[in-house]
TrEMBL record:
The keyword Cell membrane applies. Belongs to the methyl-accepting chemotaxis (MCP) protein family. This is Methyl-accepting chemotaxis protein. It is a multi-pass membrane protein. PANTHER family: LYSOZYME-LIKE PROTEIN-RELATED, METHYL-ACCEPTING CHEMOTAXIS PROTEIN MCPB. One of its GO terms (biological process) is signal transduction. Keywords: Cell membrane, Chemotaxis, Coiled coil, Membrane, Transducer, Transmembrane, Transmembrane helix. Residues 340-395 form the HAMP domain. It is found in: Cell membrane. It comes from the Bacteria. The lineage of its organism: Bacteria, Bacillati, Bacillota, Tissierellia, Tissierellales. Residues 414-672 form the Methyl-accepting transducer domain. PROSITE patterns: CHEMOTAXIS_TRANSDUC_2 (PS50111), HAMP (PS50885). GO terms for cellular component: plasma membrane.
Length: 701
């Protein structure tokens, strides 16, 4: 995107889209939170109303049953069984009138007589125990063992003079609690259910769920001994209906049949709390409000899909997308118009810059741009000012270039005349310098010859001195060498005596090697005896048969050891013989060497001492001759030194005159070189001025 117009429009479009998207997300989140908060207040209230309806229905049935139990005819316990037909008829009429499935009257022992005349014993039933304790009670939906239908059992105590003498029970349709839950309507996906204190679902808007739950309870493993099939059995944990999110029994965990985050809600409901929560069932987010049923250990819950609660935001989302799209398009159009307004002047000013880059400064921008009050107007005014300023600079440069060109021409002529005059003066000075140089050369040659003679004499003197010193050092070294030879001769004598003494003692100690030979002979004798002993032991072991096999092995090993010892002793004798021979040879050679040192080397020492004494005498004679020669060479050197001083004065005067003449010639040559350099610089300046004039002439001002 090199075009600034497209870039501005694109950036503005992206910015508008980001802003609209951000506002949309923020609005959606705010609206969603508001709906959730509203639902958070509404659903628990709705659950509370449902719990009141259920409590009212249950209380009404128990009150009706309590009224019937207070009838004096019910006290059949005080009568004989033959006189209860009237009570049975009364119960049968009440069943038909109130919609009970059946009724029964139970004595203290749990013996029950139903309205159809049947009998049973309910002593172990929990609802009977509760009624006998004076409590009005109702069971969860259970399966009746007589009819296999789902029922709820209502039980109230029968009292006489304040004493509980029995219980009146009534069986009603178990789905009546589901009908009460069904009356609570909440949207399309909303439903209500009731759980007991164990967290088991006992009523649901969908009756089929309760049917499956009770069927499962009837066939489930019962945790208590002697549980009646008509009671509410404890079903296996994590057993749920696939068509509902209601719980059957047990604590629901995240991994249990698609439930997530439900166990905490289940605990709160079982504890009789009122509240609101969220959970997921098979991945579907759900909202739930719950409240306890007063006087019961039940809790009513109202649930609804979260998606349905937030469904009202879908239309808001659609409208926002449409508004955002329209706003973005309008923004893009406005951005494009603004970008065109910026792009057009910039393109015009760019064209003017290209003309100025090509040297055309005659153009002046019109008032269309210079009278604008924005940055474009300021830029146009700046362009005009640049045009005027650069044009003035170029005019001044052209005028000054012409003036410099005229001055350069005049300077070039003057420098040419100066060069001619300097060349003539340089030629005369070189001739004078040449004559002075020849004179100076002759003087220098004479001086050099005298200096060479002086150096030779001086060298001879130095050599004579060095020779005297060397002769003295040689004499001292010869004397020192003589003394060292005397010390060395004495030391050699001492060493020779000590070496001879030590060698004799070593040869005496070497005679002990012969003892090793004797010991080796003894070892050979022992090994021979051992070998014979091993052979005899082997023969005796053979005679012993199997009993002597172990001893035979030992005898064989001893024989091998004897053979090895014999071999080793033989090798020791051989080595001992070589050692004795070597010691003998060493003794002979050592004596020869000591005799050679005592005779020949001692004589050589004496001869060298005589030679050293003669050498010291010759050195003293040489030292005297060198000292005389040194004295004579010193006198010749002093004479040559005076002559050289005189010659050096003449040479110095001649050299100064030659150097002065040469210095004048050199300075003239330098002046001539500088004049040529100035001439070349003037020439380069003229070329530069001509180039500058040509460049400036390309500008239009």
């Amino acid at each position: 995107m090199k075009n600034i117009k497209i870039r501005i429009a694109t950036f503005m479009a992206i910015l508008l889209i980001i802003i609209c998207t951000g506002l949309g997300i923020q609005s959606y989140n705010t609206s969603s939170k508001a709906l959730i908060e509203n639902t958070k207040d509404t659903m628990p209230q709705l659950a509370l109303e449902a719990s009141k309806v259920i409590e009212y229905g249950i209380s009404k049935e128990l009150s009706s049953l309590d009224i019937i139990s207070s009838n004096t005819k019910i006290s059949y316990v005080e009568k004989s069984p033959e006189d209860i037909s009237e009570i049975i008829n009364m119960m049968d009429k009440e069943v038909k009138r109130s919609g009970y499935l059946k009724m029964a009257i139970v004595d203290k022992s749990g013996n029950a007589i139903y309205n159809n005349g049947q009998k049973s014993n309910l002593k172990g039933e929990e609802y009977f125990k509760n009624a006998m304790s004076g409590e009005k009670t109702v069971t969860d939906p259970i399966k009746d063992k007589g009819s296999d239908s789902i029922v709820m059992v209502y039980a109230v105590p029968i009292k006489n003079n304040g004493n509980t003498i029995g219980a009146l029970i009534a069986f009603r349709d178990g789905y009546e609690l589901c009908d009460l839950a069904k009356e609570t309507k909440l949207g399309k996906t909303g439903s209500a259910f009731v759980i007991n204190k164990e967290g088991k679902t006992i009523a649901h808007s969908d009756q089929s769920i309760i049917s499956k739950i009770v069927d499962a309870s009837s066939s489930a493993t019962v945790t208590q001994d002697k549980a009646d099939v008509s009671s509410s059995a404890t079903v296996k944990e994590n057993e749920t209906d696939a068509g509902s999110s209601a719980t059957i029994s047990g604590n629901i965990t995240k991994t249990a049949e698609g439930f997530e985050n439900f166990s905490n809600l289940q605990t709160l409901m079982s504890e009789g709390k009122t509240g609101f929560g969220e959970y997921k069932f098979n991945g579907t987010p759900k909202l739930i409000g719950y409240a306890p049923v007063k006087e019961r250990v039940w809790s009513v819950a109202v649930e609804m899909d979260k998606k349905e609660v937030l469904s009202g935001l879908t239309e808001l989302k659609t409208k926002f997308i449409i508004i955002s799209t329209i706003s973005s398009l309008i923004g893009i159009l406005v951005s494009y118009i603004i970008a065109v307004g910026i792009d057009k002047p910039i393109k015009f000013l760019t064209g003017e810059c290209d003309k100025m880059a090509n040297g055309d400064f005659t153009l002046i921008l019109n008032d269309k741009y210079t009278k604008r009050k924005d940055e474009i107007g300021n830029l146009a005014k700046s362009f005009n000012q640049i045009n005027i300023s650069v044009s003035e600079i170029i005019r001044n440069v052209m005028s000054e270039a012409n003036n410099v060109n005229s001055f350069v021409n005049t300077s070039t002529h003057s420098i040419s005349q100066l060069n001619t005059m300097i060349e003539e003066l340089s030629s005369i000075t070189e001739e004078i310098s040449s004559g002075m140089g020849r004179t100076a050369t002759s003087t220098v040659e004479m001086k050099n010859s005298s200096a060479d003679i002086k150096k030779s004499v001086e060298s001879i003197t130095v050599k004579a001195q060095e020779g005297a010193l060397s002769a003295k050092e040689i004499s001292e070294k010869a004397l020192k060498l003589k003394n060292n030879f005397l010390l060395s001769q004495n030391s050699l004598s001492k060493i020779l005596d000590e070496t001879k003494k030590n060698l004799e003692e070593a040869l005496k100690r070497a005679e002990s090697v012969d003892e090793i030979n004797k010991l080796s002979s003894a070892i050979l004798h022992v090994t021979s005896q051992t070998n014979m002993l091993a052979l005899n032991a082997n023969i005796e072991a053979s005679r012993a048969g199997d009993a002597g096999k172990g001893f035979m092995v030992v005898a064989g090993e001893i024989r091998k050891l004897a053979e090895y010892s014999k071999q080793t002793a033989t090798e020791i004798q051989g080595i001992t013989k070589d050692v004795i021979d070597s010691v003998g040879n060493l003794s002979v050679n050592s004596n020869n060497m000591l005799e050679f040192i005592a005779s020949d080397i001692n004589n050589d020492y004496n001869l060298i001492l005589k030679t050293m004494e003669q050498y010291i005498s010759d050195t003293a004679l040489t030292n005297n001759l060198i000292n005389d020669f040194n004295k004579n060479s010193r006198e010749i050197f002093n004479s040559m030194e005076g002559m050289l001083k005189e010659i050096e004065g003449i040479s110095s005067a001649t050299s100064e005159g030659a150097e002065g003449t040469e210095s004048i010639a050199e300075k003239l040559n330098r002046v001539l070189e500088k004049a040529d350099e100035v001439k070349m610089q003037v020439k380069y300046s003229k070329n530069s001025i001509d180039t500058l004039v040509n460049i400036v002439s390309r500008f239009k001002v």
